[in-house]
Amino acid sequence: LIFQQTSLMTINTNDPDIIVKSPGRINLIGEHIDYNGGHVLPAAIDRKVTMWFRKKDNSLCRVNSEDEGAFTFDINEPLQISDTHWENYVLGVVDGVVKARPQKLGGFDCVISSELPIGAGISSSAALECGVAKGLNDLFDLGLSNLELIEISRMAEHNFVGTKCGVMDQFAVTMGKRKKLLLLNCETLDYKLIDAEFAPYKILLLNTNVSHNLASSEYNTRREECEQALAVIQKDHPAYDFLADVPESIIETYKEKLSEKVYQRALFVSRENARTLKAAELIQRGDIRGFGKLMYQTHEGLSKNYEVSCPELDFLVDLSKNLPQVVGSRMMGGGFGGCTINLVEEGFVNEFMDLASKAYKQKFDINLTSILVATSNGVETVNSES
Ligand code: GLA
Predict the structure, then answer these.
(1) Among 89, 150, 165, which residue has the most ligand 1 atoms within 8 Å of its CB, making it the best to mutate?
(2) Nearest by Cα to 196 from 367, 331, 26, 383
(3) Which of 24, 56, 93, 123 satisfies CB 3.0 to 4.6 Å to 132 for a cystine?
(4) In this structure, are residues 81 and 122 in contact, taking their beta carbons and an 8 Å threshold?
């Protein structure tokens, strides 16, 4: 792969110092509870961002994305938030790495090519962040641990991009393992690997190809609403540090003390955490149908209690409910667009894609795209592109 020559292009991707492959992620269940100290069940996937890095002998850095264009900055100057949204994923990480290892970085070239659709809820952003973090760590031999790389990437999103995200995406992208799911406790960061064994079902993502621009602001609002709920509950129950730890029976006693909206958010969070633990048990027992039912419950909660779905996502989930070959379906990720994640009988995958695309096109006049995913390893430095 050699990129079109642009004035900013100096790296020949046939001759990099290192190549990094950084995956997107799926999340089986446990949505919007990472920032509430709950449990999540993500996995890294076989769709990736590839990055070629090369050291330079001066302090100028050039970053060139195949899809988004190129920009430059000086590693020895303070980094500023950019008006060009995507650049902040890179700049935020570089800033975090420089602060973690002052004086250790020099100039570099980085070329980026992505297979991950943006706004699809499969964490193209975390893939980019964690890829830059891993690339700089290996290129300059910085010795940062995986947990440090995860934290630097997450804080880039808080400080440069402005989304107060939880830890799930960066953790899954960094720590993912082929054929495994990560049952991650977001309060302690303890995790357990679980076999990603769903036969005879396949994991199919249906991309609505809409990404309503509420996503970022509403995300931060949900976080604040959860903080409000916790603050009220903590007055009587100071032992709870995180909302996800509060049992549903206690949340129910706050119906009058919280606004209806905040009460609904808290109910969802408590239930979703319990569902995730139950789901991990069912998957380990091979009860995929039982797990599928929980996926539908999660969607219902995200749509009605947490209000982060949208008509396009609801339509696809509703459509699947009438099809016995689809055992579970729900919106995935932050919401307001992006993908649904579906567990579909292997022999029905093509037919399902076909009928969902037709129905979706008829209803919204938008083309649906589908992604059949497998789990994969987290971000890694590779010797060649294959
Ligand atoms: C986004 C955030 C994650 C998580 C999910 C919802 O992907 O980056 O931290 O909160 O939304 O589960």
Answers:
(1) 165
(2) 26
(3) 93
(4) no
Distance 170 CA to ligand 1 centre (A): 10
169 is catalytic: yes
What confidence score (pLDDT) does residue 385 get? 66
Alpha-carbon torsion, ordered 195, 196, 199, 201, to 10 deg: 160
CA distance 3 to 167: 33
**What type of residue sits at position 305?**
N
Nearest 10 degrees: CA dihedral of 227, 233, 236, 238? -50
H or E element at residue 253: none
Say if residue 250 is exposed, middle or buried (CB neighbours under 10 Å; 0-12, 13-18, 19+).
middle
Mutation test residue for ligand 1: of 29, 34, 36, 205, the one with most atoms within 8 Å of CB: 34
Which atom of ligand 1 is closest in space to residue 157's alpha carbon?
8
Q: Is the peptide bond before 16 cis (omega within 30 degrees of 0)?
A: no
Question: Going by C-beta distance under 8 Å and a sequence separation of 6 or more, which residues neighbour residue 15?
Answer: 54
d(CA 224, ligand 1 centre) in Å: 14
Q: What's the whole-number mean pLDDT along residues 191-215?
A: 94
pLDDT in the model for residue 6:
45
Residue nearest to atom 8 of ligand 1 (CA): 165
- How many C-beta atoms surround the C-beta of residue 326 within 10 A? 24
34, 109, 169, 245: the catalytic one is 169
Name the pTM for this structure: 0.95
> 134 by DSSP, 3-state: which?
helix
